[in-house]
Amino acid sequence: MPNLKVVNMAGEEVGSVELSDVVFGAEVNGAVLHSAVRAYLMNQRQGTQSTLTRTEVSGGGKKPWRQKGTGRARQGSTRAPQWTHGGVALGPKPRLYKVSLNKKTKRIAMQSALSSKVAAGEMIVVDAITATEYKTKPMAAMLKAIGAEGKSLVVLSGMDAMVIKSLANIPGVKTAQVNTINVYDILNCKNLVVVSAAAQKIEEVYA
Known about the structure:
- By secondary structure, the protein is α/β, with parallel strands linked by helices.
- The protein is built from 7 helices and 6 strands.
- The protein has helices spanning 21-24, 30-43, 103-119, 136-146, 161-168, 183-188, 196-206, and strands at residues 3-7, 13-18, 123-126, 152-156, 173-177, 191-195.
- It has a 6-stranded mixed β-sheet with strand order 2-1-3-6-4-5.
- The chain starts with a strand and ends with a helix.
């Protein structure tokens, strides 16, 4: 059972927490992680790209020259793909890129992602993160004190607009709540900063 120290916003150790083996000490399944990351990135695509085919380009109604006798290749329209200003052959059209995963796969992927962070020593548990005003400086000082400088994901136990907006201006720092975390963001950050209450909620949801 993973045992991590709990620090406060000043970086001082204030206790420890025993985490669930099922969620934070599971065997990392690389294949499932790959599927989850691929699904997440595919689902971010809008799929609105579109090119004009020869039927959608304006003009080209008249045959450019007669069929025979000119010595040139036969042409039926100036909007064929080989012509300048012609339509695009086999170009992209709007499509749906959505990929779905079943609940069991999602759960295993999340357990693997969290366990990989604990195993790599990249998860930091903070007793609480609070803010009394909308100000970036105290949050930047907090991240430096706990050793979470650089690309970090801060997981809060609930919606706290003051903390979220205070962290928003720090480059590379992203915030999430227990119900909005995803495998890609966890793997894509250097440090996973989790509030103690959020860690308990994560165990309840993914155990």
